[in-house]
Specification:
By secondary structure, the protein is mainly alpha-helical. Helix content is 63%, strand content 1%.
C-alpha cells in the first residue's frame, strides 16, 4: 500500500467487514472479486477503511506493544493476588504487589515452592515495568499531543500515554460523522440483532478498534479512582448488573465525551457526564 502511494497511485482500502458478498456470482475467485470491487468503486458504493498516516504508524504500533506488555503484567499481578489470598486469606492490592521488594517476596510464604512461584511473578513484573517505562519514554520523546487532543488530559483517568493512544488510534476525528459511529468503532456498543424486542442473533462484535476499546476501559478504571461522581455512578450500575458491565458502560460514556471534546474542542464537564 505504501509503495503504491509513493509511486503516485490513489489507493482505496476496502472495508471488508462492512461489505456484503454479491450473491449473484456463480463463480468466485480473486480475479472476479477484484472486478466486483472495481465496480463498487466506480458506482461510489465501496465501503472504505481508514489508511493511517505512515509517519505515525510505527509509534502507534509501539503503543500497541505497550498494551500487550501491560496486559501481561496485569496477568502476573492477578496471579500473585490469587496466590496470597488462597494461601494466607489476606487480600492484597495490585499497587502493593508492584512496590514489593525481593526480600518481602521471599518472606511471604513458608513453603519453598510457593516462594519460588511468587518470585517468578515478581521478577517478570519488574522486567515488564522496565520495558513499559522504556516504551513510554520513547513515545513521549517522539510524538506530542496534537491540539484537538490536549483537552483529553482534563478528563479524570486519562493521562498523557492514554491520550496519546487515543490520538494515534482515532486518527482524523472528522471521519466519524456522529458520536454513535465513534462509540461503535471503539467497541463500546453491544452487537445485537433485534426484531420486535426479540433477539435474532448477534452482529460482528469484533468489528471496530480493539486498542481503542482497551484504552477507554483503562480510562474507566482510573476514572473510578479519581472522580467521585464517576465512582458513585459505577457503583450504582454495578449493583444493578455486574461490575464488568458497569465498567464497559462507563467506558462508553467516556468515549462519547471524548468524541465531543476532540471534535468540538469543549472542556470536560462532569455535569454533562453524570447529570
Amino acid at each position: 500500500m505504501d509503495g503504491l502511494m509513493e509511486a503516485g497511485y490513489q489507493v482505496h482500502l476496502a472495508n471488508t467487514s462492512a461489505m456484503q458478498q454479491y450473491e449473484g456470482l456463480k463463480y468466485i475467485d480473486d480475479t472476479r472479486d477484484s472486478f466486483w470491487l472495481a465496480k463498487m468503486l466506480r458506482l461510489k458504493i465501496l465501503p472504505e477503511g481508514y489508511i493511517y498516516p505512515k509517519e505515525t504508524r510505527s509509534v502507534r504500533d509501539l503503543l500497541r506493544k505497550r498494551m500487550m506488555l501491560v496486559q501481561q503484567r496485569t496477568a502476573h499481578i492477578l496471579s500473585m493476588q490469587t496466590m496470597v489470598n488462597r494461601n494466607k486469606g489476606v487480600p492484597i492490592s495490585g499497587d502493593t504487589i508492584k512496590k514489593l521488594s525481593n526480600e518481602e517476596v521471599m518472606g511471604m510464604f513458608s513453603d519453598v515452592h510457593l516462594t519460588m512461584s511468587a518470585q517468578c511473578d515478581h521478577e517478570v513484573i519488574e522486567v515488564l515495568n522496565k520495558q513499559i517505562y522504556k516504551i513510554e519514554k520513547a513515545v513521549l520523546k517522539e510524538v506530542k499531543l496534537k491540539k484537538p487532543y490536549k483537552k483529553l488530559l482534563k478528563v479524570p483517568g486519562i493521562g498523557e500515554i492514554l491520550a496519546m493512544t487515543i490520538m494515534l488510534e482515532t486518527g482524523n476525528i472528522e471521519r466519524f460523522s456522529d458520536v454513535g459511529m465513534y462509540s461503535s468503532y471503539c467497541r463500546c456498543v453491544s452487537a445485537k440483532k433485534l426484531s420486535n424486542g426479540k433477539s435474532k442473533g448477534k452482529g460482528n462484535r469484533k468489528n471496530g478498534n480493539k486498542y481503542l476499546a482497551w484504552a477507554y476501559v483503562e480510562a474507566a478504571h482510573f476514572h473510578v479512582r479519581f472522580c467521585e461522581k464517576g465512582r458513585k455512578w459505577h457503583q450504582r450500575k454495578a449493583s444493578k448488573s455486574h461490575v464488568v458491565l458497569a465498567t464497559k458502560a462507563l467506558s462508553n460514556k467516556l468515549a462519547r465525551a471524548c468524541y465531543y471534546i476532540i471534535k468540538e474542542q469543549v472542556n470536560y464537564d462532569e455535569k454533562k457526564m453524570f447529570g
